[in-house]
């Protein structure tokens, strides 16, 4: 899980990709895995060590959905919003989740426990609707199953 | 060890999403308790999602299937004699005799479910690396000739002839060339790339090796979407395994051919499945698409000649070499040669992966394999080929599944994903979503896509809100023309397909 930012470790991550500008996307993926988001500090350090401008790094960060710039909740709950899951009631499931967790999609609870996010396809379309909690994918999720999964990941 | 009873429990995302890991753990516990000597093999999936988790036991050399097995079924199953193939209400009989599987034309997916995905022995014992050995034996000209003879077309959606693409890269000048595998399977309703990579990843690696050998590339990249964490684990291990046994690296099999593969992970951007956006992302940049020409085959990754192929395309190649291009071309109809892994998704009773020769109808797939809707209601609309594919009404279900017939009917087969909706669907909401999705995922390079999609949502809202309906329907039509004619890639250029088909076939949903 996410750890506190540490510039020495950040350098290690950057160097594990040869500090190569063409590895920027992969470096950012690794940063999100480690720190759960891309901080201003991280952008500054990556830009420095890859010899890019901060604007260049920021341009890449802001392009990709996964490169959050704010810390997410302890648990990230993603609900698939794509067609296959729509055909099996993902719109209703999303409303249920918003009510249950108490935030709208794309938001984090005030206590920092849960972030609710949309996702466009988890490739589990024969078992729709699908959700993902942290790195775990679940299929055929109705509102009852959703509640029990949320509890299980507490 | 050799006397241990072999139990197969899939380690594939759909099965795991329904509890396969817990099932495996419970089986291990039960075996401990009964002092049974078992070996649990985490195979991939046969693609039979509606029966997942599908547990198999090997009895006298035959695989006996049980499914769907939930964690709470395990104790009962073991008590009923699971380890000897005993009777139970979940018993399906021999796996190879399950009609749903037996009636398929498995080519690319023939090892999926059968083998341990991370066993080189299993892979080779079932024909693995035969294609690569044939390639090394007969030379690059032969490889190109066979891939052309097979009639294989790009399975990512565009359907471009693979052999011609490879020939273009082979003929391009320059010492450095690349093979890139597009594993950014973002279309809703599709999961065949994922199943292949989780169930038989070495096939993809072998396909990339053959491609590299044929065109003179010594470096390959796989661009895998982040939404597939399990695939990433399996594929990462498969690459390491291949490397540690000399299937990647220098002088592979004494052929003098060197090849390496790097695995890159995406970051949640749908447009990175577009080939030039993927190349940008592989170069570490934002996934903004490129103008074409130049084609990637001439100026691709880092400006070098590059093959960009989908996972299933590359995975189909090893057996084309092992069995000959003609053997592949013997399947299918017209210019749609070979097989396609159709994926039955959405509101479907028996969903999963059906690999069949081209030419069967949509109705056969949805009714015979799929068994109709999961809800038991009538089928009202079917979206084929992902979020950029048209919605077909019931009356078009007899369209044969081949590239050209689908284009004639106003659709596209794309990556073979089939999403079924029952009669509760609101097609104006689906049309609106198509525009909304385009607005969310547009790379922003061209105006028709970036702005057109936003305006599209607004226009549809006005139509549904009964605001100057006729005028706004005409405006939507004009907007679709602009997007089709003026967009730089399929994102903006094809978003009108689902929108227009919804308006054309389901006008009543826009007039409430």
List keywords for this structure.
heterodimer; A: 154 residues; alpha+beta; Glutaredoxin; 2 domains; 5-stranded mixed beta sheet; 7 helices; 5 strands; elongated; B: 512 residues; alpha/beta; Rossmann fold; Ubiquitin-like (UB roll); 4 domains
Task: Tell me the count of domains of chain B.
Answer: 4
Biggest sheet of chain A, in brief?
Answer: 5 strands, mixed
Largest beta sheet: strand ordering of chain B: 2-1-3-4-5
CATH superfamily of the largest domain in chain A, by name, is: Glutaredoxin
What percentage of amino acids of chain A are in beta strands? 5-15%
Name the structural class of chain B: alpha/beta
Helix content of chain B: 40-55%
Give me the side-by-side strand order of the main sheet of chain A.
2-3-1-4-5
> What is the CATH first-level class name of the largest domain in chain A?
Alpha Beta
How is the biggest beta sheet of chain B arranged? 5 strands, mixed
How widely separated are the two ends of chain B? 68 Å
Helix-strand pattern of chain A, N to C? HHHHEHHEEEEH
Give a written overview of the molecule.
Chain A has 154 residues and is of the alpha+beta class. Chain A is 45% helix and 13% strand. Chain A has 7 helices and 5 strands, in the order ααααβααββββα. Chain A has helices at 7-16, 24-35, 40-50, 54-63, 83-86, 90-101, 143-152, and strands at 75-80, 107-108, 114-119, 131-133, 136-138. In chain A, strands 2-3-1-4-5 form a 5-stranded mixed β-sheet, with helices on one face. In chain A, helix 1 crosses helix 3 (40-50). Chain A is elongated and about 50 Å long. The mean pLDDT of chain A is 96. With 512 residues, chain B is an alpha/beta fold. Chain B has 4 domains: 5-102, Glutaredoxin (3-Layer(aba) Sandwich), CATH 3.40.30.10; 120-329, Rossmann fold (3-Layer(aba) Sandwich); 332-422, Ubiquitin-like (UB roll); 427-510, NADH-ubiquinone oxidoreductase 51kDa subunit, iron-sulphur binding domain (de novo design (two linked rop proteins), Up-down Bundle), CATH 1.20.1440. Helices cover 41% and strands 15% of the residues of chain B. Chain B is built from 22 helices and 16 strands. Chain B has a 5-stranded mixed β-sheet with strand order 2-1-3-4-5, with helices on one face. A 5-stranded mixed β-sheet of chain B has the order 13-12-16-14-15. Chain B is globular, with a radius of gyration of 24 Å. At the A-B interface, helix 2, helix 4 and helix 5 of A face helix 1, strand 12, strand 16 and helix 17 of B.
